[in-house]
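Handout, section 3.2

Students often ask what a structure token actually looks like in practice. Rather than define it abstractly, here is a full record for Adenylate kinase. The first block is the sequence as you would receive it.
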Amino acid sequence: MNILIMGGPGAGKGTMSARIVEAFDVNHISTGDIFRSEIGKQTELGMMAKSYMDQGLLVPDEVVNNMVKSYLENLEDKKNGFLLDGYPRTLDQAKAFDELSKGSDLEINKVILLNIELEELTNRITGRRLCKDCGEIYHMTSKRPAVEGVCDKCGGELYQRKDDTVESLQVRLDEYNRLTAPVMNYYADKGLVYTIEANQPMENVWADVKKALEK
Ligand code: AP5
Ligand code: ZN
């Protein structure tokens, strides 16, 4: 099964992706995570992406499309399929992915849409902390680590993403409304979308996501 997870910045895509990947044994393809890893390695791709990401702007379509294509081509183990997280994020990306996947085992079967009022996202984004070593996602109120600043899972140091500021979030929301919202309609027209209420405790969101994927 090939799944796409969508939702605004901070809707909980990364949090639910970790659970989906574990429960359904699919490959996790997060374009945001891939870019952050390239930035960490200071590659040319990473440095280019950083200039957009720090401001909250989207990286150009062609760059993202080529990156996802080569990522999928180089997967060693296809597992039970894949989970796309943060891609496609514009209509042009969705159309490019259709071209790439048409008639192949790369076609998207289900789209999970995490629905949440935009006001709630500020709290989620500004309270988010991440583990430097294993990527585990925390929150200062809804998912606190046992020891402040330290990952429960691996003992790694927690940090805040550079684009998790109120200013950057405003740009990300504008980009989302302008460029990503139309992608939802594109997949809704294909009858693939399952809308999940994301403004609930994590366990409830997960129960709904799991149910939709098991249908
Ligand atoms: P990306 O990394 O995809 O960021 P995003 O879409 O803004 O999403 P986030 O990672 O911020 O949030 P999330 O929905 O994963 O939420 P999380 O689970 O962490 O993209 C970053 C940038 O990369 C883009 O701005 C762009 O520049 C570039 N980029 C990436 N893909 C691109 C593409 N395709 N095209 C062009 N550019 C691209 O949760 C948030 C917080 O809330 C956490 O602290 C969590 O603990 C907490 N939380 C989660 N669920 C709940 C709950 N139910 N209750 C309470 N708290 C919760
Ligand atoms: Zn960790």
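Discussion prompt for tutorial groups: Strands lie at 3-6, 27-30, 82-85, 110-115, 128-131, 137-139, 158-159, 193-197. How would you have guessed this from the sequence alone?
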